[in-house]
Amino acid sequence: MTVVVSHPLIPLIEAELRRWVGRGENLLELTFLDALFPSGKLLRPTLCVESARAVGGTAEAVLPFAAGIECLHVASLIHDDIVDQDPVRRGRASIAEQFGIAEALLAGDGLSMAGHAAMLSGGPADRVLAATRVVVDAMRHMCLAMMRETELRENLLCGVPAVLAVIRGKTAALISAACQAGALLGGATHAQVESVRRYGELVGQAFQICDDLLPYTVHDRAAGKSAVSDVANRQPTLPVLLAYEAAGEADRQRLVTIFGDDVDPVTAHRDVLDIVTHTGAVTEAARQARTNIDDAHAELDALPAPGRLAELAASVVARHP
Amino acid sequence: MTVVVSHPLIPLIEAELRRWVGRGENLLELTFLDALFPSGKLLRPTLCVESARAVGGTAEAVLPFAAGIECLHVASLIHDDIVDQDPVRRGRASIAEQFGIAEALLAGDGLSMAGHAAMLSGGPADRVLAATRVVVDAMRHMCLAMMRETELRENLLCGVPAVLAVIRGKTAALISAACQAGALLGGATHAQVESVRRYGELVGQAFQICDDLLPYTVHDRAAGKSAVSDVANRQPTLPVLLAYEAAGEADRQRLVTIFGDDVDPVTAHRDVLDIVTHTGAVTEAARQARTNIDDAHAELDALPAPGRLAELAASVVARHP
Questions:
Q1: Among A30, A153, B12, B13, which has the minimal tally of Cβ within 10 Å of its Cβ?
Q2: ipTM of this complex prediction, to 2 decimal places
Q3: Secondary-structure class of domain A125-320 per CATH
């Protein structure tokens, strides 16, 4: 899955990020730079800026806030890699793997604060306050969902709605908040904010569904993280639960064994790949993601100048079947 | 060391804290409640409220912000106990010990966001924004100092100024920010904000010096955390560095061995206790804390109604020689 971001924005966002995280003059700043650069897709700050533009605002006015959101997102990834004990992130060693767990914990905390400083730096005060409240609320939902996710480990019977709730909290909430914050900073009406909120939630949900499909649709290296990570952590994801629902008795029994016992991760991943494919679960999950994107597009009708928001939404599901 | 807090405020602050952290309806909220209650000394929120009052503001207007600062502080303690691998906090099992490291990490992140939500909840927008910026800046300094602290482990030659810089970042910055935020929310003049900033920094420095003296001045149980923790982590603190500077060759050699080799923590603590006592380091550190408190008192002359701020400052060093 490649997100084609709005190219002219990338150098602007990257320059803004560098303004807020220092030049690597101490260990903490070195972890910030390592986690942020080379940057990922910058989906959240791009959506924040484009949402501001979509309601008549300017990129300049919202860039510090957008960079702050990216800092919060990357901080959450640093902590997520501690929680999941993932040694790889974006194709490189994770911060925990490189610097140690205590250092990664502090790196995430510090980068989160750098993000808040960036978000709070601008004006007018009432708009900044409203936008920050939305982002903070999303980050609370993210923590709740990450905690819930650890509780769902090994639980193949938790059901599709429970996994969709985790997806909304873990990923869709912040993506939606990035859109809302941009609109609020850009001076949107209440109805416009509500439209970008729904747009962002749908795009975010599709994004996470596609992310959970990566181990079953692309080569390991392209995924940027270990393809066997979810299976190794016995983390049930949407394609696995859809497969369980559609599967016959033998496949169900195999999945129960894989998610409950000590099965070698590589063997486990190969078997799960086989089951999610032949039960049609991969196709069904991809279909749900596309439906989300269609619904997201419909929300854009309420905006005066949706610009690249349609293209950004489409890019999230571009590589999927 | 007992801080005699302003009694009528305690139930108000505790009720406000409960408003922001939920009722324990999921694992995340359970960790919040366990970390917050029974509450500690509530020094930071108390100072925040008293600083607002000292410049003519009301407790009611600043209570949500004050509760938010306590959430951020307790979140930092949860993470600190992961970094230091401390099994005990406030005389009970730490969150990491009780719930696991991943859960404690998410508990700290979630409680931090609950704190931000509380801080951002009030108005007027320009004052809330100014106060939040000060707190966020302090939290950045705290992360930097905690990271620096991990780098100073085993380093007996880092020098007193390096340890004082850690103390300022790790503890004094947030205590000072709590005072400044209260004053800003209470409508203080620039000069008044500057006075409470210095007051808070001095009180915070004295507070941490006394905290670092606890293993050498009070019984383990009263300290609320393991008396051998700093020595077990080979973390040089102010009394140890003052002792090293004042010590003869034999004592220095003993300290170098303790902080560089695998010495049994109980034996190590007994030996360090002996050295910090007979070199006069304990007395000297306590003297520095008292000097800070005297200087803090002097700052109160600039405030129209300092009220309990003098008493709060005095209480920080009340139990020390």
A1: A153
A2: 0.94
A3: mainly alpha
